[in-house]
Fold this sequence. Notes:
This protein is of the alpha/beta class. It has eleven helices and 21 strands. The strands form three sheets. Strands 1, 10, 11, 14, 15, 16, 17, 18, 19, 20 and 21 form an eleven-stranded mixed beta sheet that branches.
Amino acid sequence: MEQMDYLKRSWAVVDLDQLDENVRLIRSMLPADTKIAGVVKADGYGHGDIAIAREMQENGAEWFAVSNADEAVGLRDHGIQRPILILGVSPVEMVETLAKKQITQVAFSLEYAKALNQEAQSKGVTLEVHLKFDTGMGRLGFYAPEGEEDALIQEVLQVAALPNLKITGAFTHFCCSDDRSESARAYVHMQFDRFQTLSRLVQEAGVPLPLRHCCASGGVLLYPEMALDMARPGIILYGLYSDPDISNVLPLKPILSLYSTVAMVKEVQPGRYIGYGRTFQADHPMKIATVPIGYADGYPRSLSNRGRMIVNGQYAPIVGRVCMDQLMLDVTHIPGVKRGDRVTVIGQDGSCEIKMDDLAASVGTISNELICLIGKRIPRVYVKGGREVGVMDSIRQRP
Ligand SMILES: *Cc1c(COP(=O)(O)O)cnc(C)c1O
């Protein structure tokens, strides 16, 4: 594992074999002819979108989904040939590029569809779009109250008549599919029924919707029967969960581990303070290790005097405040700690393990947020078959 001590500061290891295994398990949940759109927005949930998408392109994903045009173009320009769907708004100025690179844009309102079409027409291109229906998320999408579907159908017919847009699918997004409570389940069913009704009416009105999709991670795990033509898993690809309610369906495992190193060990006498604001004072002789990772690397400052890491197979509590670039650990009880020793921030060392899902819960957020916040200063080292196969280093590779 020596090759992983990449910069001898702090780094992440991304296990591509575990990604393959997670994709395999996810596929086993879904009907055989349901496609998978690997969601790699936000730089592949912080793991590095190119490496993740390349691996998934080899091993299972028929589509990819991202949040915006730049992410989509980035994938296309780095060897991703499968269809790509943009889930959010793109500037209309990007329409020509998207059409030429065969990237599918979400069309979420008549007004936006008209703007896309106008630009496509002026550039002489045709843009493929998936319609988005807002069935209860209240975010993007064509919306119609129950009983007033006619207005929505009329809008969709107007979109279908726009000469430079081509509708190739439709989707919706569940807002509580990772929650097993009775009322959440009822809401998911309401959203799904609504989607089925709207897409049936649209198709009856003469607009085919060849690719229909509803399920993100929560939907894949709790409602695989609602996946229709394609599923859009994100967070579970990475072996993480937005809610403990969905964590026991499949034996998915996190693919990212985060490491740092001991920079210095010092003996501290009773009465001495540790860190900014003097929030920690030694009350007995202590051994303190300074570790080069901080909130600029994405480690939450709110874990000051609260979090813990693993050093030489034992838990070491954080003492004092988490700084921007460093923090201090109490290693009094761990024999032989010295400069250069590996510190496990997220992951396993011996019988000790720190899980991102637990860390997120103790901060009062979800893994989705913390995983995206791992800083660009942290190189991502990709490992496959026990070997390092690539590194993403945003600091070293600046223009
Ligand atoms: C982010 C997102 C997904 C993936 O969500 P996960 O919960 O991470 O699986 C799927 N669809 C849409 C529309 C999204 O915005």
